[in-house]
Amino acid sequence: MKKRLKIAIFSGNIPSASFIERLIAGVSQHHEVLLFGMQKQKVDYSSNSIRIFSTPNSKLKNSFITLWRATKLFFTNPKALFQLLEEVKKEASNYSKFMKLSKCIPILLHKPDILHLQWAKDLPKYAFLKSTFKIPIVVSFRGAHINYTPIVEPDFAEKYKATFPLVDAFHGVSKTIIDKASQYGDIANRSTVIYSPLPQFFFEAYEEFQKKESEIIRIVSVGRNHWKKGYQYAVDAIKQLKEKGYNVHYTLIGPSSPTEALLFQIHQLSVEDSISFVGQLNQEDLLKALKKQDILLLPSLGEGIANVVLEAMSMGLPVISTNCGGMAEVVKHKETGWLIPMRNTDAIAEAVIDFNSTSESELKSITNNAYKFVKNEFDFKNNISKFISLYNTVVKS
């Protein structure tokens, strides 16, 4: 019988993003999963293999719990406590010293066999757990923290170069993101591409494509309110399509309160009646909302591989995506969708027009190709088994 490992899947927040929650659920079927971080809301996991060791949001409660945990660590492993206190002294402010102490004590109390950091940006803060306490570390590359963090915050380039050698294994959500991260260290022989698994109900929702009996072309984008999502180019494209005589409606799901810049742009272009905003939806409601649309648009300037594109492909919804991050690994132009240049309003409008003029039989072929590709590469069970193999390899080595 194989040993059950203690895997800390760390994102900093409990619960985490949906794709990390799927990883937690999958890994818990094979090993014990430890969750550390700030608990933003109550969450009940059905698996007994998932254990939560949260850092309270309340400063007072956090102080009491940290003192209790520190006392417990003192009696069980005093050397570890004193080593941690030496590490904490390096922090600049008293607040950062306390937060580092409160976040790291539970990790040392319940020392995992592997600490899997979901965000590369967390590595500089937790790399000492490998160098000082010999806890093996796995780091995931998911896009933003490799694509633009070292540009926006230049000191991270040096931090990555200093800490990448300490990492036991890297996981990338695409080949492209691993190639990008390789500029900060020789990581190729420690890197594995594992695409983010999709929930089964999206595959179960697959329907062979049929053009809707409507004169309106319904376009949808899904994502948080962030400059990298490229919504401004999509809005310009909506204006262009309307000027060419196309009846279009653009729905943005996620940014319930858009930026002033985007609202001003929409007003200035007089396209208020053609654009609507919907707040963040759970996955089941998102699926229902997507079924009402004709095509999904990803106008992003940076991604790993966008989950919403995969979800659309798995359910048979056509997609238009910019050629950002690893999107070219999944969206093959006119084979599984439309792949267009970034920051190109004309290209967005032309792709929508091309979609609208494509025959139903061709669209069925494109969406069927997309479904088969995603089903083969992003199947939940297959991808979880790859993570289990990665963890086993790290522990053996």
Automatic annotation (TrEMBL):
A Pfam family it matches: Glycos_transf_1
EC number from the UniProt entry: 2.4.-.-
Any GO MF annotation of the entry: glycosyltransferase activity
Alphabetical keyword list: Glycosyltransferase, Transferase
Top class in the EC scheme: transferase
Domain Glycosyl transferase family: 209-372
Gene3D superfamilies, per the entry: Glycogen Phosphorylase B
InterPro entries, per the entry: Glyco_trans_1
Top-level division of the source organism's lineage: Bacteria
Alphabetical list of SUPFAM superfamilies matching this protein: UDP-Glycosyltransferase/glycogen phosphorylase
Record-linked PANTHER family: GLYCOSYLTRANSFERASE
The name this protein goes by in its record: Glycosyltransferase family 4 protein
Organism field: Winogradskyella litorisediminis
Lineage: Bacteria, Pseudomonadati, Bacteroidota, Flavobacteriia, Flavobacteriales
